[in-house]
């Protein structure tokens, strides 16, 4: 299972959100941000989809330490299935029963924010927290001028390398100052391909859209332009660079053919078994490699691949406050506490992801200095950019119903590049009409 929750697919339950209309309860810009009376004890509900044991432990420790220091504002930590967050929130918002504090991700915020279910946190943000997060990341959580969530941790798609295999092939690993280009990847995948089921490269492309589109930003492939909610689509050569390169490596048999049917986690047994020396995956896979790699297996994470740049999509996990919450001020205070450098560093290390605050990133970098390439991955934070598709109303529907099956068929050789471009374009026009 991909550790990133499957929020982006709309299901029939989404109709509940659309028919329910905007909420009219307390909270939100211009509403009372706290209804606490003097001396009243406040209880805040906090729903989190953290499920990796180290991250659950870190989350519980943050809640416990907050509760110990704030006897009058207690936080109730509720664990949520990471694969049901979106649908559960749809039901909760419609039923006016959403938690005060919501763990979600940036790509899931636009619809909820535009329907009026999330508080605008802009007026409540502490100045030091605002300054601690890059502006490009804030853009990814700002919907129609309103801050819909506070970013916490983020992932990038990078290469994992079997360092012994690279050394045996006479290949020097890239450095932060001299990252591999996609051309370098193709050339080195060829050198590392031995035949007999041993391929130079593999990737988990069972659900390829997120990885392809995020990586396409490194070739200035933006896909969409214009109005954030209802943008126009334009599939040019820039947007086709990454899928064409992946298809070329599949055709050249320097990339494992079963990549098209594997998730990122499914790729790991072959990586450990020396079936492929390079793997492209979300950097969260680091936690699984750390846990499951056989003794003596030497590996590292490599710098982000370079096209014309090294940009990737900023799609961080987030903490939001329900507009219906009667205690928005106190909820924001807890979120600021959660994002304190030492706390966020624990969350990031538990999930093997990048903390979006510069202060937490400095702690993680110090803790993991020289370990499995963490230095260069943590330096990728400034390369995260606001993706033009992140706030489009119909993007989740288009992604699941059009883009993913189209990319799957293209990579499997069932349709050609021209058909892929046409499918993506026509599918968007139909979805957004």
TrEMBL record:
Gene3D superfamilies: Periplasmic binding protein-like II (3.40.190.10)
UniProt key word Lipid metabolism: no
Keyword Signal appears in the UniProt entry: yes
Keywords: Signal
Signal peptide segment: 1-25
Superkingdom of this protein's organism: Bacteria
PANTHER family: ABC TRANSPORTER SUBSTRATE-BINDING PROTEIN (PTHR43649:SF30), ARABINOSE-BINDING PROTEIN-RELATED (PTHR43649)
Protein name: ABC-type glycerol-3-phosphate transport system, substrate-binding protein
Organism, scientific name: Pedococcus dokdonensis
Lineage: Bacteria, Bacillati, Actinomycetota, Actinomycetes, Micrococcales
């Amino acid at each position: 299972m991909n550790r990133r929750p499957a929020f982006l697919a709309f299901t029939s339950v989404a109709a509940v959100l659309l028919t329910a209309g905007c909420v009219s309860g307390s909270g939100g810009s211009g509403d009372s941000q706290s209804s606490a009376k003097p001396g009243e004890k406040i209880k805040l509900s906090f729903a989190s989809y953290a499920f990796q044991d180290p991250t659950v432990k870190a989350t519980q420790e943050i809640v416990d330490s907050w509760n110990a220091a704030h006897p009058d504002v207690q936080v109730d930590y509720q664990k949520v299935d990471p694969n049901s967050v979106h649908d559960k929130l749809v039901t909760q918002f419609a039923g006016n029963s959403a938690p005060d504090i919501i763990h979600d991700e940036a790509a899931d915020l636009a619809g909820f924010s535009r329907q009026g279910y999330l508080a605008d946190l802009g007026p409540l943000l502490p100045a030091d927290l605002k300054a601690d997060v890059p502006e490009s990341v804030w853009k990814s959580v700002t919907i129609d001028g309103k801050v819909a969530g506070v970013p916490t941790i983020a992932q990038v798609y990078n290469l994992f390398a079997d360092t012994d295999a690279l050394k045996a092939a006479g290949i020097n690993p890239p450095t932060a100052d001299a990252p591999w280009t996609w051309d370098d990847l193709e050339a080195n995948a060829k050198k590392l391909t031995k035949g007999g089921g041993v391929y130079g490269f593999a990737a988990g492309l069972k659900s390829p859209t997120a990885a392809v589109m995020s990586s396409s930003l490194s070739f200035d492939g933006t896909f969409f332009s214009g109005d954030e909610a209802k943008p126009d689509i334009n599939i040019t050569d820039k947007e086709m660079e990454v899928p064409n390169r992946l298809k070329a490596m599949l055709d050249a048999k320097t990339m494992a053919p079963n990549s098209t049917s594997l998730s990122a986690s499914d790729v790991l047994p072959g990586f450990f078994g020396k079936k492929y020396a390079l793997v492209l995956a979300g950097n969260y896979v680091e936690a699984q490699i750390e846990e499951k790699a056989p003794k003596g297996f030497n590996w590292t994470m490599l710098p982000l691949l370079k096209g014309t740049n090294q940009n990737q999509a900023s799609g961080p996990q987030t903490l939001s406050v329900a507009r219906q919450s009667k205690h928005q001020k106190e909820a924001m205070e807890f979120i600021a506490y959660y994002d304190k450098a030492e706390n966020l560093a624990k969350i990031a290390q538990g999930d093997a992801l990048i903390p979006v605050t510069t202060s937490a990133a400095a702690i993680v970098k110090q803790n993991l200095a020289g370990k499995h390439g963490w230095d260069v991955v943590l330096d990728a934070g400034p390369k995260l950019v606001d993706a033009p598709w992140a706030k489009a109303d119909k993007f989740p529907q288009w992604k699941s119903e059009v883009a993913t099956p189209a990319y799957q068929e293209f990579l499997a050789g069932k349709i050609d590049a021209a058909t892929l471009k046409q499918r993506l374009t026509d599918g968007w026009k139909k979805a957004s009409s």
